[in-house]
């Protein structure tokens, strides 16, 4: 069970999640930590902090886990499934012969193997029979050099992963170069265009966003909007009847949901519903990331006794990727959206409590544990408590994601 962990998505050529790389706070350089041998410590973690199983943290996708040699050889966890786990080794930590020996050992255990920090030159041909994937750091922008050496693997079964892809342009370049998978937050960056207006087909969704961020609540007008849109109506019932949200009663309408869930929870749902319908052909991980951010910021807000009506923490997390969803500059975008001032300030990079929540969740996403510690001190919240809240947000996001999968009737324009 994992108590202190983060994850980063690895996307395929269609920008869909292939796997998550797991980053461990209590392991050297984000590697899998040494097995906890103190039974009392194990029980303490299980009792006080929500811990995640591998399916929880990876949302039933494959997991990349970075290991040190000693762990692979002498302390490898027996409960990891070769069908779901890809072992990752950093080649800079080993000599040629010792790494080759370790690769053979991993393959004999039945696991797929990825080599990180690979230098892509001819002397590594010895490794081809034993490795499945090579991760290439792209931060040096050496397009020509990488293109020349990539050919070493293109006639083999070795797949290539481009690391640290942070722009849409780099994604396109490395995709054209022949890379199979991509790691980095390029998918969360807007593709800025000259578009100055939100499309007419999405104005209804903007109206719903306004309703979710207002202190007042007009059930009749909201009900009217949703009832006249088949896609929205379907998603409402599917979402509210998801076991992750509602385990007891079958909900049949918005009014029924309002009576059951209460005004604040319905506002959260309306915001989520609007966001999900804005996504169009965007990567589903954008919505998933927005969900986890929303729940985490909401939980931190509860911890800090932030007012809940409107649900400011939830809204700022949920809308933090609006620029990528709508391909518009965030500052220009918030001027068009009926959001409360506190949320607008945080989304545009201003300084307030909500902006600290966003900085914190982004630190978790990147496994920047020093930044997590620093912000935890500023917010005066126990860091281990924050890990528990982040884990809770992941589990919630996984559950909700199933209810807003792309397999639902499209909203009419």
What are the key terms here?
8-stranded mixed β-barrel, 8 strands, Hypothetical protein af1432, 19 helices
Walk me through what this model shows.
This protein starts with a strand and ends in a 10-residue tail after the last helix. It is globular. It is 49% helix and 11% strand. The protein has two domains: 5-188, TIM Barrel; 200-403, Hypothetical protein af1432 (Orthogonal Bundle). With 413 residues, the chain is an alpha/beta fold.
For the record, the CATH architecture of the largest domain stands as: Orthogonal Bundle
Task: Give the DSSP E fraction (strand runs of 2 or more residues).
Answer: 5-15%
The description of the largest β-sheet is:
8 strands, mixed, barrel
How do the SSEs run, as a string of H and E? Answer: EEHHEHEHEEHEHEHHHHHHHHHHHHH
Spatial sequence of strands, sheet with the most strands: 1-2-3-4-5-6-7-8
Question: What is the gyration radius calculated from CA atoms?
Answer: 23 Å
Distance between the termini: 46 Å
Q: How many domains, as an integer?
A: 2
CATH topology value of the largest domain: Hypothetical protein af1432
Spell out the CATH superfamily of the largest domain.
Hypothetical protein af1432
Shape: globular
Helix fraction bin: 40-55%
Work out the helix count: 19
- Which residue ranges are poorly predicted, with pLDDT under 50 across at least 5 consecutive positions? 36-41, 406-413
Q: At the first level of CATH, what is the class of the largest domain?
A: Mainly Alpha
Count the E strands.
8
Sheet/helix structural class: alpha/beta
What does the average pLDDT come to?
A: 80
